[in-house]
């Protein structure tokens, strides 16, 4: 029984961290490029986001990792997100306990008042690990998956009609029409308002135009899959985003799907989701994944109607509060 050697991770450890993370959570795989991008974003963000990461080696082999970080999308100076990941072959050897103690000391030294962590509902040992450390359930999010091989586009002919004066354009098409600066601003304005009402466990941080612009540096960015409902005046009134899954070219991931408040209940979300499915099929994708809070009844109803089916829910757990 050994807890291995715990040390702070460096950029040279990114490939090993990706291996651990993907083995522990294969449903949400990373690549070294996507982890490098995320790490750079956190370190250089003007909010001064915190990021600390550790790696555990046993007999010279990387077997576990832990992280304490702050996200720009739901920032508070005393709120942190914590992760502990142990390879299955190294479980029940005290490694997770040792990493949790390292995280606890680090966060207490920083004066953390709220810590968010989580695990999937089919991982009772991980949920018990958090419960015994004072975490309680705050929110559940399903991974909903659409198997495109079973989707029949002909069954949706004539459905998903748009209101008069509204078109569906990809961001690439909008940029060609308006130019880069005007297209970015229109996309940002629509995204910003639609994002504000997405269920989350804390208040959304104001999204700056600079933050939004940096999304286009993400290796997973797919401009042809950023579907926008655009009025004749060039206003973006709804969005539904597809992102590439850099570790699997046959899989696409849905980012935000949302509608500006004055345009809701007019069928825009369904129209954009259908347009996104057509784009996915044209690019040879086999699956579309999306995450939905279990409380988001309107979006769950649309996804169920389209044929998305839920996987085990991710349970976000919280300690403390701000």
Description:
It contains nine helices and 13 strands. The chain is globular, with a radius of gyration of 21 Å. Strands 1, 2, 3, 4, 5, 6, 7, 8, 9, 10, 11, 12 and 13 form a 13-stranded mixed sheet that branches. Helix content is 32%, strand content 29%. The protein folds into two domains: 5-112, Aminopeptidase (3-Layer(aba) Sandwich), CATH 3.40.630; 144-315, Aminopeptidase, CATH 3.40.630.
Query: Poorly predicted ranges (pLDDT <50, ≥5 residues)?
Result: none
CATH superfamily of the largest domain: Gcn5-related N-acetyltransferase (GNAT)
* Nearest-integer average pLDDT: 95
Query: How far is the first residue's CA from the last residue's CA?
Result: 38 Å
Oligomer: single chain
Question: How many discrete structural domains?
Answer: 2
Shape summary: globular
- Major sheet size, sense and barrel closure: 13 strands, mixed
Number of helices, where a helix is a run of at least 4 consecutive DSSP H or I residues: 9
Secondary-structure-derived class: alpha+beta
Radius of gyration: 21 Å
Proportion of residues in helical segments: 25-40%
Question: CATH architecture of the largest domain, please?
Answer: 3-Layer(aba) Sandwich
CATH C-level class of the largest domain? Alpha Beta
Protein name: GNAT superfamily N-acetyltransferase
GO molecular function: acyltransferase activity, transferring groups other than amino-acyl groups
InterPro entries: Acyl_CoA_acyltransferase, Bact_Acetyltransf, GNAT_dom
Keywords: Acyltransferase, Transferase
